[in-house]
Amino acid sequence: MADSPTHARVAVDGPVATLTLDRPEARNAYSEEMCAQLCESLDRCERDPEVRAVVITGAGDCFHSGGDIKAMKARTGMFAGDPAELRRRYLDGIQAVPRRIAAFRKPLICAVNGAAIGAGLDLACMCDLRVAARSAKLGSTFVKVGLVPGDGGAFFLARIVGFPRALELMLRGRVIDADEALRIGLVHEVVDEADVFERCCALANELAQLPADALQLTKRAAYESWNNEVHRALELAATYQGIAQNHRDHADRLGS
Predict the structure, then answer these.
(1) Looking at the structure, do residues 182 and 238 belong to the same domain, yes or no?
(2) Fewer CB in a 10 Å sphere around the end CB: N or C, the chain?
């Protein structure tokens, strides 16, 4: 049996891991292998105590073009099967990615080095921070090909830019440039194409210098408190603070 192709690869440099989507011939579109390898790579980064932050980017001049149009037309791979089989493929395949990212404890920074379209935009929205190249184009374009955001993109986009703006982008399938993405809060920074990866690595290294447990608990508190009721958010904050305040890192930072 032939080995599976490598469609997502990870490299570690000190406290920062880089996870690269590696199907440049398909503009880094999803494949079943890519979904599985993304999750496996995040598992590896989670287990490695030396990794403090992760940058995700795309090979070539595209970040991620979403679903593979050729596979859609041929009804192969993740697009094969009757409604019941397709549901299973989504649950076990592409939706494994947002579930894994939702549980990922360490900071995840997206280097949007080119187009982020459809599920590619959704993947960027799953990350904690996003830096885009000036030439990047971003769009939730599922309706343009008669589909819905099957990987949960309706949730992730609305969490980033708010429901009214997300709804407009999804219903129109509109592709926006990096400047508009920055204006509506879809990305945090826009930089020259040559500087995207370097800027993301700088951010990752900045975060890597902070107390790891406090950083991870802060990330978890932010996500768990979002759209939750205040009493639960406060109880969670008190619980996490009880952990952080008794951690060695806290004492070290105070100079004790």
Answers:
(1) no
(2) N
